[in-house]
């Protein structure tokens, strides 16, 4: 189904020249002279690059053939990330580029969302909040907790986040994967 200029909005998924994009910024411009147009920033699902695109009245773009499937992350084999469909036990491999920044939040056995374009896996999404164990952080010293400061902690996935002083090694914390910030300690 073709999408016209008037239907464009932030978050909409579109396809241009066979490449799926998501609109990240959108601005409707009505100059004093001439026809109105839409200036948008669009992010490619394939390589993550953001480009600026101008849409004029009459321009059409297609709706991409995208499907999301819940899969289990198995392991990284040194070259690729291995995932398994828990319903069919079918396995797929994605490269480091396809997985991107979310790799630092993934641990073996975690459930993730894989995005498919025309039945080809193109990207991975992790939950917005994940629970991970702290494997290394500085010990506490008397008086540290009163300052309200933070200390770095290495998580079981390999990510490093800033945590409050009262949180210790081997404790499990919740982390926001979009901002990379500590949310709370899991009780």
Offer a concise description of the structure.
With 187 residues, this protein is mostly beta strands.
3D structure, described in words:
- Its main location: cytoplasm.
- With 187 residues, the protein is mainly beta.
- It folds into three domains: 2-62, SH3 type barrels; 66-125, OB fold (Dihydrolipoamide Acetyltransferase, E2P); 129-185, Nucleic acid-binding proteins (OB fold (Dihydrolipoamide Acetyltransferase, E2P)), CATH 2.40.50.
- The protein has one helix at residues 96-99, and strands at residues 2-4, 13-16, 19-29, 37-44, 50-56, 60-62, 66-76, 80-84, 91-95, 111-117, 120-125, 129-137, 150-155, 160-164, 172-176, 181-185.
- A five-stranded antiparallel beta sheet has the order 9-8-7-10-11. A five-stranded antiparallel beta sheet has the order 14-13-12-15-16, with no helix packed on it. Strands 2-3-4-5 form a four-stranded antiparallel beta sheet, with no helix packed on it.
- A hairpin with a 4-residue loop joins strand 13 and strand 14.
- The protein is flat and about 70 Å long.
Low-confidence segments, ≥5 residues, pLDDT <50? none
In helices, the fraction of residues equals under 10%
CATH topology of the largest domain: SH3 type barrels
Tally of individual domains: 3
Helix/strand/pairing class, anyone? Answer: mainly beta
The total of helices stands at: 1
Instruction: Profile the largest sheet.
Output: 5 strands, antiparallel
Shape: flat
The sequence of SSEs as H and E is EEEEEEEEEHEEEEEEE
